[in-house]
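User: Structure tokens for this complex, please. No commentary.
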Amino acid sequence: MSTFHHSESSPQPMMADALRAALDSLQDPAMASADWLAHDIDPGYSTAADLLSNPAITLEQVRQAKTVFKTMRIVGEKSADRRVGGRMYAAAIAAGMVRHEERVSKQSNAALRRGFQALLDDRKMPQSLRDLAGMALCKLNGQPVGRNGASRPQPQAPRLEPGVPVELE
Amino acid sequence: MVSSADAGSSHTNWSLIFDAARGEAIPASSALEKLARRYWPAIYAFIRKSGRDVHEAADLTQGFVCDVMITRNIFTHADPARGRFRSLLLSSLQNYLKERHRHAARQKRAPVTRSFRLEDSDIAAAEIAGGDTPEQAFATQWNATLIRAVLQKVQSDCRGAGLEAHWAVFEARVVGPMLTGEPRVSYAKLVERLELDDAGQAANMMVTVKRRFVHALVQEVGRTVDDPLQVEEEIREMLRDLEQRA
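Assistant:
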């Protein structure tokens, strides 16, 4: 095997990446695998959450992420891998809807709602992706997404009861 | 799941060290030669970065291996309770260079044994960029040696497990750029070349091998520490050493 490339570019960053990959995997192997897939799509991102929650994600990156995480949810070695793959798959679809108004999946609305809700409810997932899922649910339900991108529940109109005065805001 | 506990037995290198120290079971020269052949690039890198030219660095490297590692047998002091072989080696080297500097005129060197001699090609391969200080050069070369060994093992394991296509993807996307700086081969090309289903399959094949790589790296580091629970800290320390700037 040849020696490390050592022109003007130091091999240290690449060796450091290898060591960081080991550390990440020691902490959470499934999430580390997802992060490697995201990093592989765009080396500018070290985590899947950073890539998928980034408002500047391109539609091409969304499609790539959808493809790789769709496969991960099926072929992942352990159940944790397949679970994380499923969540990231949902996040990629959510990113397509929220950032590009594009539906990159042929799944039904009901299936998408289940996927987004599962991501939203999964406390083991990064908050940024859970927020993304919330936004996608709003989109799917025809609800407005908040100005800052955060999902906001649709205010409910007051119920009118006979004889009861209605408090107006 | 890869975890510190998966570092496996830390005995492989330590047993080698103690066998070398006792001169028992395995002939001392054989055991020590194995250790010297594994770690000499890091020793050489440290000495080179301390300001010595190629020839002097090669001479001192051979001297350290023969005087300290073999003749004086520093590994009699390799107490497992002290944990980490890497730090033991580095501190011994630092002391050796100070000693050589103080007694340069009087220092007698043990004759270079035939079992350990640096060839010009060995030295050229050990000239590696990176590192502002001797300690950082040592860390860079130590990591390079470690990663190279792990890659060779993973490649061999993949071949043995019928995962040649997996290795091909990993090599094209990770190893090639790491070793030669070449650009990553596109997944479209890999799908065509290896007759895969799609980029998703190819990407996940890359992850499969990367996991094996990480697992092997953790095991390899585990052989240089006493307690598997030290593996994570050892890797963090290696990373800190690598990222330190003078």
